[in-house]
Specification:
The complex is a heterodimer. By secondary structure, chain A is of the alpha/beta class. Chain A has helices spanning about 10-20, 25-40, 50-65, 90-105, 120-130, 145-155, 175-190, 210-220, 240-245, 270-275, and strands spanning about 80-85, 110-115, 135, 160-165, 200-205, 225-230, 250-255, 265. In chain A, α3 (about 50-65) packs antiparallel against α10 (about 270-275) and α6 (about 145-155) packs parallel to α7 (about 175-190). The longest helix of chain B has 17 residues, at about 20-35. Classes of the chains: A alpha/beta, B alpha/beta. Bound molecules: guanosine-5'-triphosphate (GTP) (2 copies) and magnesium ion (2 copies). The site of one magnesium ion has 7 residues of chain B, from α6.
Chain lengths: ~280, ~290
């Protein structure tokens, strides 16, 4: 009887810790280790080094087809709605996106639909200036849906190529605030059929397993077309996107790697996984 | 939840209901899974489980008539004790102004929390002066100014006053001027990475120059395994006095709280429970423990 070759217990523990340390999550890590075990049973031996390589390949497979940057197609303006919980980097990321597209000679408009948080409008205004983008805002406290409605009218009239809408951060558990996002989306579609073509969820790489319910609820509420993972310039690995990949088929589009206007990259699954552990 | 899960694991104990080593290991695995899902750092979980294992193998469980109940009680006790707050009040004694300095990663909630603290201390009869020491983030100074206006709390005008170290020093000089009657300075610093040597150095220089009474790390309740790196580095650089955990009204389990507490030994003093300026509460160890266990 051929005994199945098992991964050495010490090695298994070490691998699990690497996965957990990257915020991949204990259940997803367990599943990845199961597949590593299956591979090991099929061949004679597998030390830590080989198993790490195997795990990286398994993770890349989960994330494949996940990297896809932003593109302006034929339909103009391309309307992008940025959403996410508080403080993850939505406003800053909008500045970065605006800068990239306006550098290509495209006409970009930024819409200050965070009418709630102190100085949110001023913050986005600075980014619009830095990026060379047009800027639309109303008084703090005004209805975000109304701001967006008027902004899209102006965008069409001025022949904008791209419109990016900044929304206030909100926890996914706050149903009334999630409903507000639904309403903003609906109003956009009324004003410009097809808008918003992109609804991007911004996730902070330092976030742990809570990113999974965040992604699920924002997707359930709005239909997310892409994820942006910010603050990857820190020490957090952002491995929770591997757990998210099990639940949603949303592609990771962009990553934030700093606070400057140029600190934005397309998501590259190869590079991301190599950096995980 | 974990208590239900553990109870059902224990229900599988047949007959005499004594806990074998194997029962304990099985149960510890359940607790481990729950704590890791709650974002507690895996090393902190390991150490915690070892403490629980030692107690579970001891007489109090082995000789108990209800070992399962006793086990669950131990898990809760150990966790609450770990979270627990000796000295979880701010120490603002001494000659005024008492200086509170908020530090932490980008977007954790420092600026909002600075204003919340001013309101909280105002309710305790203190007169605060808010100091915007973030010279980098667009409209950061404006943000604190707006919040101060909402509260009727004075905000130092940092614009054109130089770098953050200068701002803090000048603000303190202004606060010390008798006429203002200010007894507390609350410094809002810009978010920064714990691995940014230059910016961490800036915080060290502010500490050196103005000697804050309380240096509080403001951390997001949804922080994952990285909490160990962040807390370790901020504590090493500044010897923080405590922690404020923000965005706690969400559904993040908040395991970072245990990571930070276990690593630094520093108390969690407050939790942020919303975006409005009244949403700040003193930290409750029992509630945090049961939330982490799930
Ligand atoms: N290090 C680093 N910091 C970032 C990155 N992206 C954003 N930030 C910082 O994170 C902080 C919060 O960014 P914001 O753009 O205000 O985040 P937000 O999601 O718009 O916040 P709310 O509107 O309050 O919900 C700021 O200090 C940014 O400079 C990144 O990729 N790396
Ligand atoms: N839901 C919730 N949001 C909070 C809480 N505390 C702060 N926020 C929000 O978190 C976001 C970031 O808050 P800020 O005060 O700008 O964070 P910060 O640490 O000063 O950010 P930087 O200066 O860029 O590092 C804002 O949208 C705040 O309204 C809280 O307890 N609950
Ligand atoms: Mg914003
Ligand atoms: Mg701030």
């Amino acid at each position: 009887i051929k005994r199945r070759k098992e991964i050495d217990q010490g090695v298994r523990e070490e691998l699990e810790e690497l996965l957990i340390a990257a915020d991949i999550g204990v259940k997803t890590s367990g599943r990845l280790l199961e597949t590593a075990q299956e591979m090991v049973s099929k061949q004679e031996s597998a030390g830590l080094g080989l198993l790490k390589e195997y795990l990286k390949e398994a993770i890349k497979e989960v994330l494949v087809g996940k990297g896809k940057g932003l593109e302006i197609g034929v339909e103009k303006p391309l309307v992008i709605m940025m959403v996410g919980v508080n403080g993850v980097g939505k406003t800053t990321t909008i500045g970065k996106i605006a800068s990239q597209f306006s550098a290509k000679g495209l006409k970009v408009m930024l819409v200050a639909a965070d009418t709630f948080r102190a100085a949110a409008i001023d913050q986005l205004r600075v980014w619009a200036e830095r990026a060379g983008a047009e800027f639309i805002s109303q008084q703090p406290g005004s209805d975000p849906a109304a701001v967006v409605f008027d902004a899209l009218e102006a965008a069409r009239a001025r022949g904008m190529d791209m419109v990016v809408v900044d929304t206030a951060g909100r926890l996914h558990t706050k149903t009334n605030l999630m409903d507000e996002l639904k309403k903003i989306k609906r109003v956009m579609g009324k004003k410009l059929p097809g808008a918003p073509q992109e609804i991007l969820l911004v996730l902070d790489a330092t976030t742990g397993q809570n990113a999974v319910p965040q992604a699920k609820l924002f997707d359930e509420t709005l239909g997310i077309t892409g994820i942006i993972l910010t603050k990857l310039d820190g020490t957090a690995k952002g491995g929770v996107i591997v757990a998210i990949a099990n639940e949603l088929t949303v592609p990771i589009r962009l990553i934030g790697i700093g606070e400057r206007i140029e600190d934005l990259r397309e998501f590259d699954p190869e590079q991301f996984v190599e950096a995980l552990f | 939840n974990l208590t239900e899960k553990l109870s059902s694991t224990f229900k599988k104990l047949k007959g005499h209901g004594r806990l074998s080593e194997r029962n304990i290991e099985e149960t510890l695995r359940e607790v481990r899974m729950s704590m890791l899902e709650a974002d507690v750092h895996f090393r902190v979980v390991k150490e915690f489980l070892e403490k629980v294992r030692q107690r579970a193998l001891g007489r109090e469980v082995q000789e108990s008539l209800t070992p399962a109940q006793q086990f669950i009680k131990i898990v809760n006790e150990e966790l609450t004790r770990l979270m627990g707050g000796e000295n979880s009040e701010m120490d603002l004694s001494g000659s005024p102004p008492a200086i509170v300095m908020l530090v932490g990663l980008q977007g954790s909630g420092k600026t909002t929390t600075a204003a919340k603290l001013a309101k909280y201390l105002g309710q305790k009869g203190r007169k605060s002066y808010l100091v915007p020491a973030d010279t980098r983030r667009p409209a950061a100074i404006e943000q604190l100014k707006v919040l101060g206006e909402q509260l009727g709390v004075e905000v130092y005008d940092s614009r054109g006053k130089g770098d953050p170290v200068k701002i803090c020093r000048k603000a303190r000089e202004e606060a010390e001027a008798e006429a203002k009657g200010i007894d507390t300075l609350i410094i809002d610093t810009g978010g920064r990475l714990h691995i940014d040597e230059e910016l961490m150095g800036e915080l060290e220089r502010i500490k050196e120059k103005i000697e804050p009474r309380e240096i509080l790390l403001v951390a997001d309740a949804m922080t994952g395994q990285d909490a160990i790196n962040v807390a370790g580095r901020f504590n090493e650089a500044l010897d923080i006095d405590g922690v404020i955990l923000t965005k706690m009204e969400g559904d993040a389990r908040g395991g970072a709280a245990l990571t930070i507490r276990a690593l630094t030994g520093k108390p969690i003093k407050f939790v942020g429970t919303g975006e409005k300026l009244g949403a700040l509460e003193p930290f409750c160890p029992e509630r945090m423990a049961s939330r982490i266990l799930g």
